[in-house]
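Structure tokens please, single chain.
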Amino acid sequence: MAFSLSISAVLAFEISEAGKYDSGNLSEVQLRAKQGDASAQLELGTRLYSGNGVPEDYVQALEWYEKAAEQGNPTAQYYVGVFFSQGTGTSKDDAMAFKWFLKAANLGNLKAQKAIGEMYHEGQGVDISLEESAKWYLKAASQGDAESQYYLGVMYLDGEGVPKDPVEAAKWILKAAEQGRVDAQTTIAGMYKDGNGIKKSKGEADKWLQRAKDSADDNEKAE
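Here you go.
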């Protein structure tokens, strides 16, 4: 099964949304950032990224994110990783992206944990390791991330990086399905139909197929 690191659109939304929040006037934020306040450095980077009260400047945004990241701010570390993974405000560098994602992931940042799982799976910025991929997907899945839950379930289903275990696969895929992932809903429907890792049930199979159809329709309308 193919996995892909698709973070840029999500990041743009996250930072744009964060940019709407102002902890103080711009001069105060700039002063605190220059004095070494990591939260102010993070906010200033966000303002520069989104053009909130200042001209949009990705290079300077990255510089301020890096300052906050170097102080151990996991959100800033994640953002720095995304900038390097996408070549935003700097040259694209998967190894640097991996470095910063890993720092954030080790501090519990869910999105960074998922990114590390993806990068280990695809060999982006690091050698492929399906075992490490599964380990990091488990961390993100345990925090409730539906995408990681589904990917982890598929890895258990295929015996990829973990022992093949249809029961464990069904557990994680069902969690993702309950959060509305269409691919998980379709997969769990098939597992119910075949009795693969879960008690065979035509009723449950039909229910999840219908939910997958409804979810797909909702997603199409949202677009």
